[in-house]
Amino acid sequence: MSTKSPSGLGKYQRLGVHAALIMLCLPFIMPLIWMVSTSLKAPSQIAMKSGESAVAFSAKNLLPNPVKWDNYPKALETVPFAVYLRNTLFLCFFSVIGAVISSAVVAYGFARIRFKGRDSLFYLMLATMCLPGAVTMIPAFALFRWLGWYGTFLPLIVPAFCGNAFYIFLLKQFFATIPEELSEAARIDGASEWRIFRQVMLPLAKPALATCALFQFLGTWNDFFGPLIYINDPTKYTLAYGLQQFLASHGTEWAKLMAGACIFTIPIIILFFFAQKTFIQGIATTGSKG
Amino acid sequence: MKKRSAKTIRNLTGYAFIAPWLIGFLVFTAGPFIASIFLSFTRYDIISTPVWVGAANYKELLTGDPIFWKSLLVTFKYAAVAIPSGIIAGVALALLLNMELKGISVYRTIFFIPSIVPVVATSVVFVWILNPNSGLVNSILLRFGIMGPNWLQDKNWALWSLIFMSLWGVGGSMIIYLAGLKDIPIQLYEAAMIDGANAWQRARHITIPMLTPIIFFNLVMGTIGAFGTFTQAFVMTQGGPEDSTMFYSLYLFNRAWRYLDMGYASAMAWILFVIIMIFTGIIMKSHRKWVHYGN
Predict the structure, then answer these.
(1) Which of A125, B42, B160, B287 maximizes the CB count within 10 A of its CB?
(2) B267 with B245: CB under 8 angstroms?
(3) The dihedral sign for the CA sequence B244, B158, B160, B86
């Protein structure tokens, strides 16, 4: 919107805009700065002893002094975050593979093959996106329990292999933009649908597949409810669940707790900086196409 | 004859491709969906077989369960404040960050990052910064001579704390609005300028109407999301103090997994389903009146 462009602004007006934006940013960035800074503080700098009255905020207290790096090894001793990280990555790996591959296959079917009942099934699939999870979770839980999967990772992985309605929708939109002539040429050469999908369509769909992989990774990394109801063995906890358990059991050891929160959060922020474009585009399409 | 078999092959190939979803749909969605109607009329503790009790669960919910009504009220209050303020803040930030200014992308990134922080991490961090004595928020307030409330431990402030926390994540919807702003054709503004429209009139008659499809989308998803609010409340307050943050989904979880009242919880799930249907129905119906589809 060039009408709003402040190119007409003078130097002091520009400085004013920057000052206002920085003020506005503070409430958004401070909790994260506070999380990192607390994770590196000595206990004496964090909380006053009981009976003391609260201390007003001062710039001196913003940064850790001295910097206690050993809060991290200590946190890892108290809580096996390394084990939780391994479990989380294990789940992320398989659910990303499962969701991306199956969603791509299904999306190709919906986008490129004219079969009977296709459109109604596609609308049915879209409708399931609005279905609140509460309506299906109790029987699904009973089903997994009956299968003997309670307490294993299977209930958190297997459903991913059935595709995800949102990814199928995104990929279908993407496949629909690829010219029909491309697959027609392969068909004349005698290629099967599967080969067209594998060798013509999939390589072209890489950016869309990356968006789905990223969303699925984040979804699994952040998932709290799944591990909460299906995992009962502390050696199988994920980071999300382990962090909540830590808060529940060591609620006042703020430095260790914030160290745990950093271990859980910082990888996501790093991932964001590496995959910024995929992030932003993915989220933007969510809004405009949904 | 040959043509017919080609058609059959195409149908079979199509179903083979969508088979993963179709199987998942039948096993993990349609089957459980139907089963949960049945379970809502039973007493079921997951271990023994369900016992048919007729409409007893629904009757108990509607006439004899004050926490059910409380949880509905809490969820409605949260939705009624968090959704509109999230939309207003999201649109306002997007308008502000749509400027052409050096370093604007840095600000965008800062506003956006909180929305990708995992909910459990956000919850843990907010428990800490809202700590009544040593927390960041109250120590800043004290700097200005204000004694902050006990936030999560005060029944008048706990729900507000969760609403503030939801606004901290507004950057996600801000990005969607920003993408929407970029799609507005520049000619619309040029034409309006020629007609002598001022900045407010341009925002009121061009920008906001052009954003209504996205606002509509966020309204629908926000409503469904509000009724699904669970993790924050579970991690931060467990529904307390005095059930002031007992969200519907949290109460449903407690019924199902804490008390193993799976039949009762299924009835709650069905009431939730009907409520969401009614709300999305109302929003969808209203959408002709205010949602503008320009292209």
Answers:
(1) A125
(2) no
(3) negative
Reported as type and span, the H/E element at residue A229 is helix A225-230
Domain extent listing, chain A: 75-289
In this prediction, residue A241 carries a pLDDT of: 95
Give dist(CA A249, CA A263) in Å, integer: 18
Q: Give the rounded percent of residues in chain A with a pLDDT score beyond 90.
A: 59
Number of domains in chain B: 1
According to CATH, the superfamily of the domain at A75-289 is: MetI-like (1.10.3720.10)
Q: Do A28 and B114 touch (CB under 8 A)?
A: yes
Beta-carbon separation of A113 and B17 below 8 A: yes
pLDDT at A18 over 60: yes
Q: Whole-prediction pTM value?
A: 0.90
Q: Give this complex's ipTM.
A: 0.90
CATH of the domain at B95: 1.10.3720.10
Q: Do B36 and A139 touch (CB under 8 A)?
A: yes
Contact status of B40 with chain A (Cβ, < 8 Å) = no
Position B33 in a domain: no
- Residue B238: how many other CB atoms lie within 10 Å: 13
Q: b/e string for B135-168 if b means 16 or more Cβ within 10 A?
A: bbbbbbbbeeeeebbbbbebeebbbbbbbbbbbb
B86 touches chain A (CB under 8 A): no
For residue B30, tell me if it sits in a domain: no
